[in-house]
Amino acid sequence: MTATRRPGPARASRDRRPALLLAALLAFTGPTALPSEASAAVTPDRDVSTAAVTPDRDVSTAAAYPNPGLVTGDIGVHDPTVVRTPSGGYLVAHTGDNIALKTSTDRTAFRNAGTVFPNGASWTTTYTNGSRNLWAPDLTYRNGRYHLYYSASTFGSNRSAIFLATSTTGASGSWTHQGLIIESRTSDNFNAIDPNLFVDGQGRWWLSFGSFWSGIKLIQLDPNTGRRLDSTVRSIAGRNGGAIEAPVIVSRGGYHYLYVSFDLCCRGASSTYRVMVGRSTSPTGPFVDRNGVAMTSGGGTEVLAGHGSVHGPGHQAVLADTDGDVLFYHYYADNGRSLLGINLLGYDAAGWPYVH
């Protein structure tokens, strides 16, 4: 999710109050205002660039969540997404004016790498009221091209849209606008933001998305174009209008895992964001949590939540890397700055993920 938004209709008027708008703006500084950070704002538990996945364990025995692993350089982000490049490096995109880019060679040191659309994205302004701030990108690399799904909206509104851009290099200014994928209007019961592309074992392309309103949705895409294959919109998770967003689906060990963020971001150190997960044997669900509660009924097993000086971790991405699965996310430091968090993911004896 992004730094300037949004509960659903029942909360929209409250979130438009000047005090909360000011708090949201202070909680997030866009890419033009994010200084280089010498290191993460909390003491890292380990260097995640080299740490190996540990044996399975039961997360119920974990005394506390670990701190984020060591990251340095330009680590101010919001809503990060990451992909491995053909050369073995890392490309990160995140919420910001014209969508901000960062690169890393080792998953530890990050540097700013410009924006996706240095000349702006005029086709989005209908949804942003003229703002250049674009939200919650999702990066993948398939068939020799980077695919970037991203969203355009305004705080507290579901007049929103998801677009696609592609590039063969991933560099700033190299991206081609591929058009509108899906939009939502104020008459709809969903919000077309926070996209995530998932390709299942049969080669079918799926796009999950959603925030507040009636929850997380799923549409099927045409692998040849990256655009919608049909008009069906499936519901795969929800909290009866409550705070849920930022879906990510990954396949591991015969299950499809649906990660989401519960509760509220964008309030600096007062943010309550947390990472939740459910799983299904089908990419379209039903997804259930560890206790068997359907995610369409508010279910979700907690993977990561605020602890110590790590506030409101969420808007997660999962990367399959050489040393195992890696969880990328943003969190807020004590001073309210939004920073990049990285932890390794393990799986317990029952196949449920945990951070370490």
Short description:
The protein is mostly beta strands and 356 residues long. Helices cover 6% and strands 39% of the residues.
Helix and strand arrangement:
Elements: H1 9-15, H2 18-27, E1 72-73, E2 81-84, E3 90-94, E4 96-97, E5 100-104, E6 109-115, H3 125-128, E7 133-142, E8 145-152, E9 160-167, E10 176-184, E11 196-199, E12 205-209, E13 216-221, E14 234-237, E15 244-252, E16 255-262, E17 274-280, E18 301-304, E19 311-321, E20 324-332, E21 338-347, E22 353-355
Structure in words:
InterPro entries: GH43_arabinanases, Glyco_hydro_43, Glyco_hydro_43_endo_a_Ara-ase, Glyco_hydro_beta-prop_sf. Keywords: Glycosidase, Hydrolase, Signal. Belongs to the glycosyl hydrolase 43 family. Residues 1-40 form the signal peptide. By secondary structure, the chain is mainly beta. The chain has a single domain (9-355), classed as Glycosyl hydrolase domain, family 43 (Tachylectin-2, Chain A), CATH 2.115.10. The protein contains 3 helices and 22 strands. The longest helix has 10 residues, at 18-27. The chain is globular. It starts with 8 loop residues before the first helix and ends with a strand.
Question: Tags for this entry?
Answer:
Glyco_hydro_43_endo_a_Ara-ase, hydrolase, 39% strand, Arabinan endo-1,5-alpha-L-arabinosidase, 22 strands, single chain, glycosidase, 356 residues, mainly beta, 5-stranded antiparallel β-sheet, Tachylectin-2, Chain A, 5-stranded mixed β-sheet, Glyco_hydro_43, disordered N terminus
Tally of distinct domains: 1
Strand order across the largest sheet:
1-6-5-3-2
CATH architecture: 5 Propeller
Helix % is under 10%
According to CATH, what is the class? Mainly Beta
Write the CATH fold name.
Tachylectin-2, Chain A
Count every beta strand, where a strand is a DSSP E run of 2 or more residues.
Answer: 22
Would you identify the regions where 5 or more consecutive residues have pLDDT less than 50?
1-41, 45-63
Average of the residue pLDDT scores: 87
State the distance separating the first and last CA atoms. Answer: 24 Å
Pfam family, one: Glyco_hydro_43
Keywords: Glycosidase, Hydrolase, Signal
Signal peptide: 1-40
Family: Belongs to the glycosyl hydrolase 43 family.
